[in-house]
Amino acid sequence: MLLSARIGATVVAVVGVLVLVGWYAGITQLTNLIPGFGAMRPTTALCVVVLSAAVVLLQHPIVGRILGGLVVVIGVLTLVEYSLDASLGVDTLMPGIDLTRVDFGENSVLMAPGTAAALIFLGASVALIGTTRHTTPALVLAMVGLGISQIALICRGICQEGVFERRP
Fold first, then answer.
1. Which residues of 89-106 are buried (b: 16+ CB within 10 A; e: fewer)?
2. Nearest to 67 by CA among 9, 144, 149
3. Is pLDDT of 128 > 80?
4. What CA–CA distance (Å, rounded) separates 11 from 117?
5. CA distance 11 to 34
6. SS3 109
7. What's the pLDDT tens digit per position in 148-168?
8. Are 142 and 70 in contact (CB under 8 A)?
9. What is the pTM (predicted TM-score) of this model?
10. Does the keyword Transmembrane apply (predicted)?
């Protein structure tokens, strides 16, 4: 089980690193790895890489707590930015990335609120695995985080199909 978790986390980390390389090198094809969904935000890619590193390093509980906690903090700050409609600088965590070269349309340069919520649960799950021998609460948090991300993807797909159109 641990081997499959490490393999999956490594694949996810490679995707996150590719997205970050795309942002730094200006290769928009690397920032938009899922067709039809737009560019992955640099902060999201950073969180994905950090979570993957935490999973790969599960045998070091302190590392899991620190990295999981970092992802939770980034997710919470992102949601606070959305709620206050003000920038706290979360979108500028990655220095040297020019966010103006990608047209986000009506979307913000921040990660989506659904993504932030999912990352809060996933980060808490990884942090919890490092603090307790009981994995059931950590697995519940991970399932909630994955469920939120799936709902966000489905809603995004429905909105793109025009099922829910904005009315004036």
1. ebbeeeeebeeeebeeee
2. 9
3. yes
4. 22
5. 15
6. coil
7. 888 887 776 666 555 555 544
8. no
9. 0.82
10. yes
